[in-house]
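Sample A.
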Amino acid sequence: MTALKMTISCFFFLQVISCLLSSFAPTNVQGLQVGFYDKACPKAELIVKKSVFEAINKDPTLGAPLLRMFFHDCFVRGCEGSVLLELKNKKDEKNAIPNLTLRGFEIIDNAKAALEKECPGIVSCSDVLALVARDAMVALNGPSWEVETGRRDGLVTNITEVLLPSPFNNISSLITQFQSKGLDKKDLVVLSGGHTIGHGHCPQITNRLYNFTGKGDSDPNLDTKYAASLRRKCKPTDTTTALEMDPGSFKTFDESYFKLVSQRRGLFQSDAALLDNQETKSYLLKHMNSDKSTFFKDFGVSMVKMGRIGVLTGQAGEVRKKCRMVN
């Protein structure tokens, strides 16, 4: 074979390989990039950061709900801002039971209003949500990462589509749900580490404490002293009491969550479940014994991956003027 023929053959071989690889890439991810608004709205990220820092300085407990808001958005229809939409009939994602404890929507509104004043019709609400999640963690002295932007906003919200990973899930369900979104076991453990901040509520653990197998028993995978402490705070009929996800450290983004789970002191069944798979358990123990910077780096990588789920780019969707309604 001549050199020219070999070159041509290699070229076409590489083209075929490239096509095959691209067919396995997550949909529309090629439309995202770091610094998407650098030319069209160069102050965009600074404007969002200012809104977030002002809010977190006034109320640090908003950090966890803002992080969770992005997670809840991405796992339903993808990261396209459908969790922000409101319908007159209340059949929107916001009113689904898992989303009733979300807070901080006004921070999204404030950031979006400031962006519309600076550069109307340019920055999507779904990108605001992605930036807010990152900036909220930075405001709590947590991890930082480069946020890919370029998302566009969805046009649909439907309460019946909110099927999120649950605090009651076992490890098989969690792995399946994360894999269906292109996230692996490491992402599951790392993103669960977000439970280092914020609160849960008594109804999410009542069964673990009082009726785990339907026989009036408690979850054997829950540390007995911790269970007794939780029972003092949560009576069987308590529907409102908030519980620190990471007792003593719930306002600080750190790796202490992994130590608690390893000691059977994770608040949710889904936290304890991370010990039920060899791969997730090994990741958990690795983070427990590593320095904070390793966890922070891994968290950023997993957040970027999650931020690519089901995105709308190019001419798909729209850029909303106000985040609670379609244009």
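Sample B, a different protein:
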Amino acid sequence: MILSAEVHSAEPIRVLVTGAAGQIAYSLLYSIAKGDVFGKDQPLVLLLLDITPMLPVLEGVVMELQDCALPLLREVIPTDKVDVAFKDLDAAILVGSMPRREGMERKDLLKANVAIFKSQGEALDKYAKKTVKVLVVGNPANTNCLIAAKSAPSIPKENFSCLTRLDHNRACFQVALRCGISANSVKNMIIWGNHSSTQYPDIHHCKVNVQGKDVTAFDAVKDDAWLKGEFISTVQQRGAAVIKARKLSSAMSAAKAICDHMRDIWTGTTEGEFFSMGVYSTGNPYGVPEDLIYSFPVSIKDKTWKIVDGLAINDFSRAKMDATAAELVEERDTAVSFLGV
């Protein structure tokens, strides 16, 4: 259904959100549709994919998007069919995945998600533009992203990334809270590795603006024991803490992080600043095993990310970077073994 008059001259881009009837998407779709992600002058067509039983719920989401009367939103297409959802995409945000149920082995969770992300990778390969930018959010996000990328051989591996911006934002806020400053005064935080409890939030290259002057996180916080202990575990366990409190996983904050991640891909990062993003590890300068989707510090220009090179890594950091890499290698090997099944 056409939703607005042709008030913008730019060609609409086609943006897919999967798991579109879920709670993350409910927090996400308004921000995308009103121009917070792809630009205030960029019209768009939203494609909303979910499983067949969720289609009635999805109709309600469509009604609400219509009722927002947003000028950039040209069309909303709810569907349960991949050939419709993935056609000619400019951007794909893959939120939907099989959640872990009580008593479920991690291996079973991986197997279910390999099936989902293999089919979505194949659909990207077959129907989407070769320039499509793909962000995987559904957990286990790094390995799901790798499976999707492997299943879409005609799309460059560099076009795939997974979300660790939520962890990045969590880490920035913890430092800001500790220093009594605003979150945007904390720059160049790094999340290394897996979007799991083995991730490593690294403050060694972080700049904190205190009273107009950039200082290191160590100088700003003045509590090395906290930075090397409780700070790391708080960020690693934050998702579980939210679930314990809300009885639901992070949605509002996940949606905000998705917006930050995709906006940075679309519009680029500021000179001298970098952010965390799960990207393809092959050829990386930090000795991380090849053929993983691993979170690195990246800068972005012309919709192309580049791993920030030349950052000194001490022994403390190296051990934590290696531990999260080992988990990802194990996850990848298990997941790849299911690909042929």
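Observation for Sample B: DSSP finds twelve helices and 14 strands in the chain.
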